[in-house]
Amino acid sequence: MKSILCGMAILAGLALPSCQSEKSAKVAAATKTESTTETNSPTAAIAADAKPADAATILARPQVPILCYHQIRNWKASDSKAAKDYIVQEQDFRDQMKMLADSGYHTILPDQLYNYLNYGAKLPSKPIMLTFDDTDLDQFTVAAPTMKKYGFKGVFFIMTVSLGRPRYMSKAQVKELSDNGHVIGSHTWDHHNVKKYAGEDWVTQIEKPTKTLEEITGKPIHHFAYPFGLWNKQAIPELKKRGFKSAFILAEKRDDTDPLYTIRRIIASGYWSPRTLHNSIVNSF
What we know:
Elements: H1 21-34, H2 37-40, H3 55-60, E1 66-69, E2 71-72, E3 87-88, H4 90-102, E4 106-107, H5 110-119, E5 127-133, H6 137-149, E6 155-158, H7 171-179, E7 183-186, H8 201-217, E8 223-225, H9 235-241, E9 246-248, E10 266-267, H10 274-284
Parallel strand pairs: 1-5, 1-10, 2-3, 4-5, 5-6, 6-7, 8-9
């Protein structure tokens, strides 16, 4: 049920001194404190008379690096070579987060990105977005605590059919992530390919799962990630009708008419060292 590119069930070595870990966390926390409300608030820095940008203006703005993670766990003997591309081992993930903190990156959330793209709102220096697809339990038990160490927040795109199943998050854990300042996004009911939707599929795959997530979190759900990173033009008006402000693909060309519904991400490969990840960020955005 995981994606080919952004969600299939299963489908390293910038070794900075360990004694720097505590320092990195303190620096990240201090930097976060110094960041102003203007750059960190999802609704700040928008002029009262600001008008939404046209597609050309949005496309012309520098892209914010967005990483897509799936499983955060150690490899098993049964994992295939292809599967390992979607499984970032626990220490590798910790090293990657430390690299981002040491490199001065600040995590942002989807409303901040939306306001930047649509209204030109300011962002913190070296913004980056961390996204997680498919509801895997290790995102809650490993990724979230590691991110907390550096003051990072992320976006968790939830596939609701998996809630409460073994190796997946429970409703209570999803709510805890939301309560702790992370953003919960929609990722369909059972990861069905959006390109194949017809008739009631929009209700089954989009409306009902989104309402479920809103009931769990007590917050509106405005952001969506396409299963497999696959989309078509027919999907965009359907998402708009259902109140979505943005939707995320993978490393494909953005739509010239509706770039807010085709925001690019790159998959953080399980084979990448922190240095390789940093180079990919620089080269991809």
